[in-house]
Design a protein that fits this description.
This protein starts with a strand and ends with a helix. The protein contains eleven helices and twelve strands. The protein is α/β, with parallel strands linked by helices. The longest helix has 13 residues, at about 265-275. A hairpin with a 2-residue loop joins strand 5 and strand 6. The chain is globular. It binds NADP nicotinamide-adenine-dinucleotide phosphate (NAP). NADP nicotinamide-adenine-dinucleotide phosphate (NAP) binds near residues 127, 132 and 246.
Protein backbone atom coordinates (compact mmCIF):
# COMPACT_ATOMS: atom_id res chain seq x y z
CA UNK A 1 0.00 0.00 0.00
CA UNK A 2 1.34 3.44 -0.95
CA UNK A 3 1.40 6.03 1.82
CA UNK A 4 1.79 9.81 1.94
CA UNK A 5 1.11 12.46 4.57
CA UNK A 6 1.18 16.17 5.38
CA UNK A 7 3.60 17.41 8.04
CA UNK A 8 3.40 20.63 10.04
CA UNK A 9 3.33 22.00 13.58
CA UNK A 10 0.46 22.33 14.38
CA UNK A 11 -1.26 20.20 11.74
CA UNK A 12 -4.87 19.71 12.90
CA UNK A 13 -6.18 22.48 10.60
CA UNK A 14 -4.90 20.91 7.35
CA UNK A 15 -7.48 20.07 4.68
CA UNK A 16 -4.95 18.15 2.56
CA UNK A 17 -6.16 14.71 3.85
CA UNK A 18 -9.70 15.51 2.67
CA UNK A 19 -8.38 16.27 -0.84
CA UNK A 20 -6.05 13.29 -1.20
CA UNK A 21 -8.44 10.81 0.41
CA UNK A 22 -11.12 11.97 -2.07
CA UNK A 23 -8.78 11.14 -4.96
CA UNK A 24 -7.73 7.80 -3.44
CA UNK A 25 -11.43 6.84 -3.31
CA UNK A 26 -12.18 8.26 -6.78
CA UNK A 27 -9.38 6.33 -8.49
CA UNK A 28 -9.77 3.18 -6.37
CA UNK A 29 -6.17 3.36 -5.18
CA UNK A 30 -5.17 1.32 -2.16
CA UNK A 31 -3.25 3.99 -0.32
CA UNK A 32 -3.35 6.29 2.66
CA UNK A 33 -2.80 9.99 3.34
CA UNK A 34 -2.48 11.08 6.97
CA UNK A 35 -1.62 14.12 9.09
CA UNK A 36 1.68 13.94 10.98
CA UNK A 37 2.46 16.51 13.67
CA UNK A 38 6.21 17.10 13.46
CA UNK A 39 7.98 19.50 15.84
CA UNK A 40 10.69 21.69 14.28
CA UNK A 41 13.38 19.90 16.31
CA UNK A 42 12.22 16.53 14.92
CA UNK A 43 11.93 17.60 11.27
CA UNK A 44 15.32 16.44 10.03
CA UNK A 45 14.94 12.99 11.58
CA UNK A 46 11.38 12.65 10.28
CA UNK A 47 12.09 13.44 6.66
CA UNK A 48 15.32 11.41 6.83
CA UNK A 49 13.21 8.38 7.73
CA UNK A 50 10.32 8.78 5.24
CA UNK A 51 11.26 5.53 3.52
CA UNK A 52 11.56 3.52 6.75
CA UNK A 53 8.20 4.90 7.81
CA UNK A 54 6.70 3.64 4.55
CA UNK A 55 5.96 7.05 3.01
CA UNK A 56 6.42 7.73 -0.72
CA UNK A 57 6.56 11.42 0.19
CA UNK A 58 4.64 14.20 1.91
CA UNK A 59 3.20 17.67 1.77
CA UNK A 60 4.80 20.25 4.01
CA UNK A 61 3.14 23.17 5.72
CA UNK A 62 3.97 25.88 8.26
CA UNK A 63 6.58 26.19 9.78
CA UNK A 64 8.68 23.67 7.81
CA UNK A 65 8.57 24.93 4.19
CA UNK A 66 11.96 26.70 4.21
CA UNK A 67 13.70 24.02 6.29
CA UNK A 68 12.70 21.15 3.98
CA UNK A 69 13.90 23.17 0.99
CA UNK A 70 17.35 23.38 2.62
CA UNK A 71 17.35 19.68 3.52
CA UNK A 72 16.25 18.30 0.13
CA UNK A 73 18.96 17.02 -2.21
CA UNK A 74 17.04 17.59 -5.45
CA UNK A 75 15.27 20.96 -5.78
CA UNK A 76 12.82 21.77 -8.57
CA UNK A 77 12.99 25.19 -10.24
CA UNK A 78 9.72 26.20 -8.55
CA UNK A 79 11.19 25.53 -5.09
CA UNK A 80 14.40 27.40 -5.96
CA UNK A 81 12.39 30.42 -7.18
CA UNK A 82 10.41 30.58 -3.95
CA UNK A 83 13.12 29.41 -1.53
CA UNK A 84 10.65 27.03 0.09
CA UNK A 85 8.96 23.70 -0.68
CA UNK A 86 5.56 22.16 0.04
CA UNK A 87 5.93 18.76 -1.64
CA UNK A 88 8.55 16.04 -1.03
CA UNK A 89 9.13 12.68 -2.68
CA UNK A 90 11.90 10.13 -2.94
CA UNK A 91 13.93 9.62 -6.10
CA UNK A 92 15.69 6.37 -5.21
CA UNK A 93 17.12 7.27 -1.81
CA UNK A 94 17.41 11.01 -2.58
CA UNK A 95 14.89 13.49 -1.18
CA UNK A 96 13.39 15.73 -3.89
CA UNK A 97 11.27 18.84 -3.35
CA UNK A 98 8.97 21.18 -5.28
CA UNK A 99 6.85 24.20 -4.55
CA UNK A 100 3.50 23.46 -6.18
CA UNK A 101 1.78 26.71 -5.07
CA UNK A 102 3.00 28.39 -8.22
CA UNK A 103 1.55 25.65 -10.45
CA UNK A 104 -1.64 25.57 -8.34
CA UNK A 105 -2.23 29.29 -8.61
CA UNK A 106 -1.69 29.44 -12.38
CA UNK A 107 -3.67 26.26 -13.13
CA UNK A 108 -6.61 27.65 -11.18
CA UNK A 109 -6.36 31.05 -12.86
CA UNK A 110 -6.29 29.37 -16.28
CA UNK A 111 -9.29 27.21 -15.40
CA UNK A 112 -11.38 29.95 -13.75
CA UNK A 113 -10.55 33.00 -15.89
CA UNK A 114 -8.70 31.87 -19.05
CA UNK A 115 -9.18 35.28 -20.68
CA UNK A 116 -6.52 36.75 -18.34
CA UNK A 117 -3.89 35.55 -20.84
CA UNK A 118 -5.24 37.88 -23.52
CA UNK A 119 -4.54 40.90 -21.31
CA UNK A 120 -1.29 42.84 -21.48
CA UNK A 121 -1.48 45.26 -18.56
CA UNK A 122 0.65 45.07 -15.41
CA UNK A 123 0.03 42.43 -12.75
CA UNK A 124 -0.66 43.80 -9.25
CA UNK A 125 0.53 41.59 -6.40
CA UNK A 126 -0.63 42.55 -2.91
CA UNK A 127 1.84 41.17 -0.36
CA UNK A 128 5.44 39.98 -0.44
CA UNK A 129 5.45 36.85 1.71
CA UNK A 130 6.19 33.25 0.72
CA UNK A 131 3.03 32.77 -1.31
CA UNK A 132 3.63 36.05 -3.18
CA UNK A 133 6.92 34.60 -4.44
CA UNK A 134 5.14 31.49 -5.70
CA UNK A 135 2.55 33.58 -7.54
CA UNK A 136 5.19 35.92 -9.02
CA UNK A 137 7.18 32.92 -10.27
CA UNK A 138 4.04 31.72 -12.05
CA UNK A 139 3.49 35.03 -13.84
CA UNK A 140 7.16 35.22 -14.84
CA UNK A 141 6.98 31.69 -16.27
CA UNK A 142 3.87 32.82 -18.18
CA UNK A 143 6.03 35.54 -19.77
CA UNK A 144 4.64 38.62 -18.02
CA UNK A 145 6.93 41.65 -18.13
CA UNK A 146 5.48 44.07 -15.57
CA UNK A 147 4.73 42.66 -12.14
CA UNK A 148 4.18 45.22 -9.39
CA UNK A 149 4.50 44.18 -5.76
CA UNK A 150 2.73 46.32 -3.14
CA UNK A 151 3.59 45.53 0.44
CA UNK A 152 3.05 47.09 3.86
CA UNK A 153 6.76 46.84 4.64
CA UNK A 154 8.43 48.21 1.53
CA UNK A 155 11.74 46.51 2.42
CA UNK A 156 10.16 43.12 1.88
CA UNK A 157 8.71 44.21 -1.48
CA UNK A 158 12.15 45.47 -2.49
CA UNK A 159 13.82 42.22 -1.45
CA UNK A 160 11.27 40.32 -3.56
CA UNK A 161 11.90 42.57 -6.58
CA UNK A 162 15.68 42.11 -6.22
CA UNK A 163 15.23 38.35 -5.96
CA UNK A 164 13.32 38.14 -9.27
CA UNK A 165 15.00 40.88 -11.34
CA UNK A 166 13.86 43.77 -13.54
CA UNK A 167 10.41 42.46 -14.49
CA UNK A 168 9.30 42.72 -10.84
CA UNK A 169 9.10 46.12 -9.13
CA UNK A 170 8.43 47.19 -5.52
CA UNK A 171 5.78 49.74 -4.59
CA UNK A 172 4.53 51.34 -1.37
CA UNK A 173 1.33 49.85 0.02
CA UNK A 174 -0.33 53.25 0.40
CA UNK A 175 -0.30 54.03 -3.34
CA UNK A 176 -1.83 50.74 -4.52
CA UNK A 177 -5.07 52.42 -5.57
CA UNK A 178 -3.17 54.77 -7.91
CA UNK A 179 -2.49 51.74 -10.13
CA UNK A 180 -5.92 50.15 -10.46
CA UNK A 181 -6.74 51.89 -13.76
CA UNK A 182 -3.78 50.20 -15.54
CA UNK A 183 -3.55 46.68 -14.17
CA UNK A 184 -4.94 43.54 -15.82
CA UNK A 185 -4.78 41.13 -12.88
CA UNK A 186 -4.92 41.82 -9.13
CA UNK A 187 -3.85 39.10 -6.68
CA UNK A 188 -4.16 39.26 -2.91
CA UNK A 189 -1.40 37.22 -1.27
CA UNK A 190 -1.60 39.02 2.08
CA UNK A 191 -3.45 37.55 5.03
CA UNK A 192 -5.98 40.42 4.85
CA UNK A 193 -9.48 38.96 4.70
CA UNK A 194 -8.50 35.66 6.31
CA UNK A 195 -11.08 34.44 8.83
CA UNK A 196 -13.05 37.60 8.18
CA UNK A 197 -10.30 39.91 9.49
CA UNK A 198 -9.15 42.86 7.38
CA UNK A 199 -9.57 43.90 3.75
CA UNK A 200 -6.90 44.99 1.23
CA UNK A 201 -9.30 47.90 0.40
CA UNK A 202 -8.85 48.04 -3.35
CA UNK A 203 -10.90 50.65 -5.17
CA UNK A 204 -12.05 49.11 -8.45
CA UNK A 205 -14.04 52.12 -9.65
CA UNK A 206 -11.39 52.99 -12.30
CA UNK A 207 -10.47 49.38 -13.22
CA UNK A 208 -11.02 48.03 -16.74
CA UNK A 209 -14.01 45.70 -17.08
CA UNK A 210 -11.84 42.71 -18.09
CA UNK A 211 -9.64 42.91 -14.97
CA UNK A 212 -9.33 39.57 -13.17
CA UNK A 213 -9.17 39.63 -9.35
CA UNK A 214 -7.78 36.63 -7.51
CA UNK A 215 -7.58 36.06 -3.76
CA UNK A 216 -5.43 33.23 -2.45
CA UNK A 217 -7.11 33.48 0.96
CA UNK A 218 -9.80 30.76 0.99
CA UNK A 219 -11.37 31.10 4.45
CA UNK A 220 -13.92 32.51 3.84
CA UNK A 221 -14.38 31.57 0.18
CA UNK A 222 -15.88 34.95 -0.64
CA UNK A 223 -13.37 37.44 0.76
CA UNK A 224 -13.94 41.21 1.02
CA UNK A 225 -11.67 41.70 -2.01
CA UNK A 226 -13.71 39.30 -4.17
CA UNK A 227 -17.02 40.80 -3.03
CA UNK A 228 -15.77 44.24 -3.91
CA UNK A 229 -14.52 43.09 -7.36
CA UNK A 230 -17.84 41.42 -8.13
CA UNK A 231 -19.72 44.59 -7.19
CA UNK A 232 -17.94 46.20 -10.15
CA UNK A 233 -18.75 43.24 -12.43
CA UNK A 234 -15.15 41.97 -12.48
CA UNK A 235 -14.19 38.27 -12.64
CA UNK A 236 -13.23 36.94 -9.20
CA UNK A 237 -11.10 33.83 -8.63
CA UNK A 238 -11.14 32.33 -5.14
CA UNK A 239 -8.26 30.69 -3.25
CA UNK A 240 -9.80 27.24 -2.88
CA UNK A 241 -9.09 26.38 -6.52
CA UNK A 242 -5.38 27.07 -5.90
CA UNK A 243 -5.40 24.81 -2.85
CA UNK A 244 -6.91 21.97 -4.90
CA UNK A 245 -4.65 22.39 -7.94
CA UNK A 246 -1.47 22.62 -5.86
CA UNK A 247 -2.22 19.13 -4.55
CA UNK A 248 -2.20 17.55 -8.04
CA UNK A 249 1.59 17.13 -8.64
CA UNK A 250 2.19 15.51 -5.23
CA UNK A 251 -0.63 12.98 -5.67
CA UNK A 252 0.72 12.04 -9.08
CA UNK A 253 4.27 11.57 -7.72
CA UNK A 254 3.18 9.38 -4.79
CA UNK A 255 0.28 7.40 -6.22
CA UNK A 256 1.05 7.34 -9.97
CA UNK A 257 -2.22 8.89 -11.23
CA UNK A 258 -2.65 12.52 -12.27
CA UNK A 259 -5.89 13.46 -10.49
CA UNK A 260 -8.53 15.86 -11.72
CA UNK A 261 -9.83 18.91 -9.86
CA UNK A 262 -13.58 18.41 -10.25
CA UNK A 263 -16.65 20.36 -9.16
CA UNK A 264 -17.43 17.47 -6.75
CA UNK A 265 -14.06 17.91 -5.01
CA UNK A 266 -14.48 21.69 -4.91
CA UNK A 267 -17.92 21.34 -3.30
CA UNK A 268 -16.65 18.84 -0.72
CA UNK A 269 -13.91 21.17 0.54
CA UNK A 270 -16.08 24.29 0.21
CA UNK A 271 -18.64 22.64 2.49
CA UNK A 272 -15.92 21.83 5.02
CA UNK A 273 -14.76 25.48 4.95
CA UNK A 274 -18.31 26.77 5.44
CA UNK A 275 -18.80 24.44 8.41
CA UNK A 276 -15.55 25.54 10.10
N1 LIG B 1 -4.92 29.14 -1.62
C1 LIG B 1 -3.81 28.52 -1.29
O1 LIG B 1 -3.54 27.38 -1.73
C2 LIG B 1 -2.80 29.22 -0.42
C3 LIG B 1 -1.46 28.82 -0.45
C4 LIG B 1 -0.55 29.50 0.36
C5 LIG B 1 -0.99 30.53 1.18
N2 LIG B 1 -2.32 30.88 1.19
C6 LIG B 1 -2.79 31.98 2.03
O2 LIG B 1 -2.08 33.15 1.67
C7 LIG B 1 -1.95 34.03 2.77
C8 LIG B 1 -0.51 34.51 2.90
O3 LIG B 1 0.35 33.42 3.15
P1 LIG B 1 1.95 33.62 3.23
O4 LIG B 1 2.51 32.29 3.58
O5 LIG B 1 2.47 34.32 2.04
O6 LIG B 1 2.06 34.60 4.50
P2 LIG B 1 3.31 35.48 4.95
O7 LIG B 1 4.57 35.00 4.35
O8 LIG B 1 3.19 35.57 6.44
O9 LIG B 1 2.98 36.94 4.32
C9 LIG B 1 1.92 37.69 4.79
C10 LIG B 1 1.75 38.93 3.93
O10 LIG B 1 0.58 39.64 4.40
C11 LIG B 1 0.95 41.00 4.65
N3 LIG B 1 0.10 41.55 5.72
C12 LIG B 1 -0.23 40.94 6.89
N4 LIG B 1 -1.02 41.77 7.63
C13 LIG B 1 -1.19 42.90 6.89
C14 LIG B 1 -1.91 44.12 7.09
N5 LIG B 1 -2.59 44.34 8.22
N6 LIG B 1 -1.87 45.07 6.12
C15 LIG B 1 -1.17 44.86 4.98
N7 LIG B 1 -0.47 43.72 4.73
C16 LIG B 1 -0.49 42.76 5.67
C17 LIG B 1 2.40 40.93 5.04
O11 LIG B 1 3.00 42.21 4.93
P3 LIG B 1 4.38 42.56 5.72
O12 LIG B 1 5.48 41.96 4.91
O13 LIG B 1 4.40 44.03 5.75
O14 LIG B 1 4.25 41.93 7.09
C18 LIG B 1 2.91 39.92 4.02
O15 LIG B 1 3.11 40.52 2.76
C19 LIG B 1 -2.49 33.25 3.97
O16 LIG B 1 -3.80 33.69 4.23
C20 LIG B 1 -2.50 31.80 3.50
O17 LIG B 1 -3.51 31.03 4.12
C21 LIG B 1 -3.22 30.25 0.38
Amino acid sequence: MKRACVIGWPIAHSRSPLIHQFWLRTYGIEGSYTKEAVRPEDLKAFIGSLKERGFAGCNVTVPHKEAVFSLAEIKSSSAVAVGAANTLWLEGDALACANTDSYGFMANLDQSAPHWRASRGPIMILGAGGSARAVIHGFLEAGREDIRVFNRSIERAEATARHFGARVTAWAWDIRNDHTADVSVVVNTTTLGMNGVGDPEIDFSRAGRDVVVADIVYVPLETPLLSSARRYGLTGVDGLGMLLHQAVPGFEKWFGVRPEVTRELYNLIAENIREA
